[in-house]
C-alpha cells in the first residue's frame, strides 16, 4: 500500500496492539467460562447420571457410576 492510502485512514494503521491483545484475552476467557459451565451443566444432567453419556461406564446391575 502507498503512504497516501495510510494517511486517508490513520485509525486503521495506528491501532493500539494492547487493545487488540486485551480483546482476544477477554474472548478466550469468556469462551473458557462457557465451556466450563456447559461441562458442569452436562455433569449435573439426569442423562449423564443414568449412563446415557459416553463418558460414564455403566455397571452390570445398576446405573452408571462416575469417578
Structural class by helix and strand composition: mainly alpha
Helix proportion: 55-70%
Strand content: under 5%
Unreliable spans are: none
Profile the largest sheet. Answer: none
InterPro entries: FAM240
List keywords for this structure.
rod-shaped, mainly alpha, 67 residues, single chain
Descriptive account of the structure:
The chain is mostly helical and 67 residues long. The chain has one domain (19-67). It is built from four helices and no strands. The termini are far apart. The relative contact order is 0.08.
Describe the secondary-structure layout.
Blueprint: H1 3-8, H2 10-13, H3 17-44, H4 46-49
Short description:
With 67 residues, the chain is mainly alpha-helical. It is built from 4 helices and no strands.
Amino acid at each position: 500500500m502507498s503512504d497516501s492510502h495510510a494517511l486517508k485512514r490513520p485509525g486503521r494503521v495506528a491501532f493500539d496492539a494492547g487493545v487488540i491483545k486485551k480483546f482476544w484475552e477477554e474472548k478466550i476467557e469468556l469462551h473458557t467460562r462457557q465451556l466450563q459451565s456447559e461441562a458442569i451443566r452436562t455433569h449435573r444432567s439426569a442423562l449423564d447420571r443414568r449412563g446415557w453419556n459416553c463418558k460414564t461406564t455403566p455397571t452390570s446391575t445398576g446405573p452408571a457410576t462416575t469417578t
